Amino acid sequence: MACPVTRGQLKAHLKERAQALFPRVEVTLKTADALLILEAGRQYPGEGKSMNFTN
């Protein structure tokens, strides 16, 4: 079953969402993902605290 939204449409929507969240930042398709991950981390602080990346 085909998805009703193309990948390009999805990326454009995510870019628009990131631009709305970060109006002072020049959002591109490449930076939108990173900004949305940043926002998710700000909304859910502590979710990754059990992860330890140091040896």
Topology summary:
Elements: H1 7-21, H2 29-43
Helix pairs in contact: 1-2
Question: How would you describe this protein?
Answer:
The protein is an all-alpha fold and about 55 residues long. The protein has a domain at about 10-40. Helix content is about 55%, strand content about 0%. It is built from 2 helices and no strands. It has helices at about 5-20, 30-45. α1 packs across α2. The longest helix has 15 residues, at about 5-20. It is globular, with a radius of gyration of 15 Å. The relative contact order is 0.12. The mean pLDDT is about 85.
Characteristics:
55 residues, mainly alpha, globular
Q: Summary?
A:
The protein has 55 residues and is mostly helical. The protein has a domain at 9-42.
- Per DSSP, the total helix count is 2
Would you identify the regions where 5 or more consecutive residues have pLDDT less than 50?
A: none
What gyration radius follows from the Cα positions, in whole Å? 15 Å
Q: How many strands in all?
A: 0
Most strands sheet: none
Mean residue pLDDT: 85
What is the H/E string? HH
Structural classification: mainly alpha
Distance between the termini: 45 Å
What is the general shape? globular
| Amount of helix | 40-55%
Question: Beta-sheet strand percentage?
Answer: under 5%
